[in-house]
């Protein structure tokens, strides 16, 4: 494939990462739903649970399906489910309909994330693949950053925050059409797909296990900050919800900048070294967040966490794909299973926060995630991280 054709094939795949960012709107959405239906933290945090639990259930089956129907077809199936999910809260708004919509979004996003990363390997490889993964995370970060602003605009201009969902549906449709007409080479289909025991058996590899848990905790940290920041600002600074929601945008703006800078840093420096520095900075910022009570200080610390953690997911994921390259589909499914951390960690946060009566409990859980990531960065051997 010549350079021009490669770029033409790569662009719609990378744009598809914008769709993966839709799951992050569950953070600000849970705050609006909690307010609208007067829910406890535990009940509100069932929304991210409804999204991310499907990563645990569907990731490995999606990897197996992908061996049969191909990566591009799997992405297109996910786009169809996303279209349906995005219209449900707009057509009928209730706590139950939101759970259904975000549950379908979780299923669709599971399939998308499992297929999207290895689909890049149909077009590029080696260092180009790592760069493409980082670029994809940059596009995803832009999507995540835009969510709270779109919700606030919809709430103030249209009088209903859920009017943002038809826009997301339209973007999904554009992405699907663009991907369909693109000249992406089709991979060879595996005539003997791996079984569930074989995929889970990959965790017997210590490096794969460390990386799997790393994915679980970085996603838990990411979703945790996403849903906690507005509540923390309302609790400590007495801000109204719409203003507190901008704290999420600060987080994602800094994460977007971090992924952009990371694409250049990863081309020049060791991924393992960048991982160590990133996790050390994140732990330090979260430690200060325990006692922060000023709005600008909280914004600053949340932004630092977003910037520092921006490249952790793509680094861990590319390490995993590089550990067992002949099992790329299976590794992708297994790693995306770890995204279920976005369901489990917020649920733990909600229970502890309701028990303590303070968002301090949520910050403590997020801190535990970051400490594991720091340990993981130093436990991984250099030869597996370059």
TrEMBL record:
Q: Which InterPro entries match?
A: MFS (IPR011701), MFS_dom (IPR020846), MFS_trans_sf (IPR036259), MFS_TsgA-like (IPR050375)
The record's section on Pfam families has:
MFS_1 (PF07690)
* Span of the signal peptide: none
Where exactly are the transmembrane stretches of this chain? Answer: 7-26, 46-65, 101-126, 164-181, 208-228, 248-267, 274-292, 298-321, 333-353, 359-380
In terms of one coarse class, where is the protein primarily found? membrane
Q: What is this protein called?
A: MFS transporter
Q: Which PROSITE patterns match?
A: MFS
Q: Which SUPFAM superfamilies match?
A: MFS general substrate transporter (SSF103473)
Instruction: Please name the source species.
Output: Parapedobacter defluvii
């Amino acid at each position: 494939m010549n350079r021009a054709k490669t770029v033409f094939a790569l662009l719609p795949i990378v744009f598809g990462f914008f769709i993966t960012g839709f799951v992050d709107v569950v953070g600000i959405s849970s705050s609006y739903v909690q307010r609208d239906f007067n829910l406890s933290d535990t009940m509100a945090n069932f929304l991210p649970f409804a999204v991310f639990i499907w990563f645990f259930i569907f990731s490995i089956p999606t990897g197996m399906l992908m061996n049969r129907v191909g990566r591009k077809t799997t992405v297109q199936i996910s786009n169809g489910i996303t279209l349906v999910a995005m219209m449900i809260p707009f057509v009928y708004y209730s706590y139950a309909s939101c759970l259904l919509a975000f549950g379908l979004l979780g299923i669709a996003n599971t399939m998308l994330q499992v297929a999207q990363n290895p689909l890049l390997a149909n077009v590029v490889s080696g260092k180009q693949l790592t760069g493409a993964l980082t670029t994809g995370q940059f596009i995803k970060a832009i999507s995540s950053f835009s969510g709270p602003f779109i919700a606030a605009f919809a709430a103030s201009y249209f009088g209903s925050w859920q009017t943002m969902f038809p826009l997301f549906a339209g973007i999904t449709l554009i992405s699907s059409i663009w991907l369909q007409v693109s000249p992406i080479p089709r991979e060879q289909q595996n005539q003997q797909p791996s079984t569930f025991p074989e995929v889970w058996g990959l965790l017997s590899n210590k490096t794969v296990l460390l990386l799997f848990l790393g994915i679980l905790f970085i996603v838990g940290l990411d979703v945790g900050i996403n849903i906690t920041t507005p509540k923390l600002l309302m609790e400590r600074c007495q801000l109204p919800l719409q203003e507190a929601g901008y704290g999420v945008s600060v987080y994602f703006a800094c994460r977007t900048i971090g992924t952009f800078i990371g694409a250049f840093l990863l081309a020049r420096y060791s991924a393992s070294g960048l991982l160590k520095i990133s996790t050390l900075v994140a732990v330090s910022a979260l430690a200060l967040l325990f006692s922060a009570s000023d709005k600008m200080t909280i914004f600053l610390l949340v932004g630092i966490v977003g910037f520092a953690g921006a490249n952790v997911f793509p680094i861990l994921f590319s390490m995993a794909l590089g550990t067992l390259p002949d099992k790329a589909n299976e590794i992708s499914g297994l790693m995306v299973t770890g995204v279920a951390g976005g369901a489990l960690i917020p649920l733990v946060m909600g229970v502890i926060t309701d028990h303590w009566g303070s968002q301090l409990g949520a910050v403590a859980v997020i801190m535990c995630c970051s400490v594991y990531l720091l340990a993981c960065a130093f436990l991984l051997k250099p030869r597996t991280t370059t």
